[in-house]
Amino acid sequence: MKSLFFAAGIALAGAGSAYADSSDPIKIPINEWTGQHISAHILGSLFEKAGYSVEYVTAGAVPQYAAISQGDLHVQPEVWTNNVGDIYPKAVESGDIVVVGQLGLTPQEGWIYPPYMEEQCPGLPSYEALYDCAQAFASPDTFPKGRLITYPADWGTRSKDVVGQIDIPFEPVAGGSEGAMIAEIKSAVAAEKPMLMMFWQPHWLFAENEFNWVEWDEADGECVEESGQSKGNACGFQQASIDKVANKDFASTWPGAAALFEAFSIDNDTQNTLMNEIDQKGRELEDVIAEWVDANEETWAPWVEAAEAAKN
């Protein structure tokens, strides 16, 4: 059964829309983490296989939604729905951004720490243990508060907000980038130094190191981060779905690309493997993506065929 997104594009194309099968480049935002680079560049490569031109545009994970809603950017294959800011839900509600479906990744987000920290904070993994042993996570700059590395500033303030809501004695410190966060946690693990960090998976980091996740109170339904959490009633972080989204005019402008985008998917194993090649083995993103595309025609050929069928 065709989605409303794809069906609308075909209907407009069939009606002779002047914008159908545009020769303009499809603009895909590039965010701050390697997994998204992989999703975006595989998608872009397959658009090119289907005869479209593609332009990659650097954009912040939250600010990008204004550009997508306005049509300055066209598709985003990897939206972590629990870290989207204020613009995104309004744009989805108004119809300026269309949710096409899920990407296929199984995500987890929260606070991680190396297992050796449980010796210094015996109540872990419960978040309530952090009230009593914050100093075990302290740095000279934060003492007596613990130090919590959070996402880069333009990814939003979710960890900072939770720290404030539950009044936990930690100082949120924004990571400069994904790469800076990884360098810091690897350095800490190598020296068995204190570390508490907001992080996510899928990610190659979990293939090479063991980390534990801080555990929260069970939520009554979904965890709603804005609901005024407190000690004894803290669900932590809403777990995301990872969605594919597009500007409202994408399906009518590029109906073939819309069909491909709807079919497109990536799983954790694929993304973790490719991230490891790039981030750990130091290979160029473009080479890794080209190698995957060459080796996986059986996977993506039906998606490109769907694009060709929609154009004809």
Automatic annotation (TrEMBL):
GO molecular function: transmembrane transporter activity
Signal peptide: 1-20
Natural source organism: Roseovarius indicus
UniProt GO cellular component terms: ATP-binding cassette (ABC) transporter complex
Keywords annotated in UniProt: Signal
CDD domains (UniProt xref): PBP2_BCP_2
Superkingdom of the organism of origin: Bacteria
Ranges for domain ABC-type glycine betaine transport system substrate-binding: 24-294
Upper classification of the organism: Bacteria, Pseudomonadati, Pseudomonadota, Alphaproteobacteria, Rhodobacterales
Keyword Transferase part of the UniProt annotation: no
Name the record gives this protein: Glycine/betaine ABC transporter substrate-binding protein
Gene3D superfamilies membership: Glycine betaine-binding periplasmic protein, domain 2, Periplasmic binding protein-like II
